[in-house]
Specification:
It is globular, with a radius of gyration of 21 Å. The chain is an alpha/beta fold. It folds into 3 domains: 62 residues, Beta Barrel (OB fold (Dihydrolipoamide Acetyltransferase, E2P)), CATH 2.40.50; 148 residues, P-loop containing nucleotide triphosphate hydrolases (Rossmann fold, 3-Layer(aba) Sandwich), CATH 3.40.50; 61 residues, Probable gtpase engc, domain 3 (Ribonucleotide Reductase Protein R1, domain 1, Orthogonal Bundle), CATH 1.10.40. A 6-stranded mixed beta sheet has the order 10-9-8-11-13-12, sandwiched between helices. Strands 1-2-3-5-4 form a 5-stranded mixed barrel. It has a two-stranded antiparallel sheet with strand order 6-7. Helices cover 26% and strands 24% of the residues. The chain has 7 helices and 13 strands.
């Protein structure tokens, strides 16, 4: 038996990268009967059925440290949330929802602002918002090659997924890191200023400096499962220094008096856009709880 990682799955076939090369394998029927589906990023064990053709049978899925539903990926170390200062316009609510998704799954996250050449000043303003969170923040330009070394250092020896809207340059960033046109890249629709989806399946790409990166279609959704309104503040790292200073224990930081988080907001220590995202998510989670009663 060989151990490896699923790097791609298409049409019921899985491609497993091992120390002896990449094997094509079909999953055993026992997974279907258990309701378990192998996904890209899974560590697995395979038995080789044809060494010359590099074919085998996927026999075992090793325990996952995390997994996501949309897209189906497993065993992430970090999510790099990527957006641009313009073309397309940044959706900071989505960025904040994705940081929540990452932290709730126990995955560290970083912020990558691409296309900085389009509006350097706006890119710097956006970077200041997220520097207050403590997340790593990178300003890069895939087009001009700016920031590539810093990004590579963040990805080295990790399993990373890039997340964000289409059109922000995720595939272009990966092409630059891989040193070639590894994936098709798309243009921005001039009519709707929104990226066309160019990545058609989930694939795990080996990075030349160590580690792997997912090229993931549609990783712009987020998952609230397991997060309550009361826990939400814990997923906003910039709030962490303040709750103990609030007047009331269990302060929701919404309408309570003498709230240290709101005071920090008024002093510019917490970004307004982040606080507004928090309030929006808090109300959403409260409604979910009411609906479940």
């Amino acid at each position: 038996m060989l151990e490896g990682v699923i790097v791609k799955g298409i049409g019921g076939f899985y491609y497993i990268r091992t120390e002896q090369g990449v094997y094509e394998a079909k999953a055993r029927g026992k997974f279907r009967s258990r309701g378990l589906i192998p996904i890209v990023g899974d560590r697995v064990c395979i038995s080789v059925t044809d060494e010359a053709e590099k074919k085998g049978s996927l026999d075992e899925i090793l325990p996952r440290k995390n997994s996501f539903i949309r897209p189906p990926v497993a065993n992430l170390d970090r999510i790099i949330i990527t957006f641009a200062p313009k073309d397309p316009e940044p959706n900071l609510r989505l960025v904040d929802k994705l940081t929540l998704t990452a932290l709730a799954a126990g995955v560290s996250c970083g912020i990558c602002i691409n296309k900085t050449e389009l509006d350097p000043e706006r890119a710097k303003e956006l970077a200041e918002i997220y520097k207050k969170t403590g997340f790593p923040v990178l300003l890069i330009s895939a087009k001009e090659g700016f920031g590539k070394e810093e990004l590579a250092a963040l990805l080295k020896d990790k399993v990373t997924a890039f997340a964000g809207n289409s059109g922000v340059g995720k595939s272009s960033i990966l092409n630059g890191l891989l040193g070639g046109e590894a994936m098709e890249t798309g243009s921005i629709s001039e009519k709707i200023k929104r990226g066309r989806h160019t990545t058609r399946h989930v694939e795990l790409l080996a990075l030349p400096f160590g580690g792997f990166a997912f090229d993931t279609p549609g990783f712009s959704t987020f998952e609230l499962e397991g997060v309550t309104a009361q826990e939400l503040a814990g997923y906003f790292p910039e709030f962490a220094a303040y709750p103990e200073s609030c007047r009331f224990a269990g302060c929701a930081h919404i309408s309570e008096p003498d709230c240290a988080v709101k005071e920090a907001l008024s002093e510019g220590k917490i970004a307004l856009s982040r606080y507004e995202s928090y309030c929006e998510l808090y109300e959403t989670l409260k409604q979910i709880k009411e609906w479940m009663k």
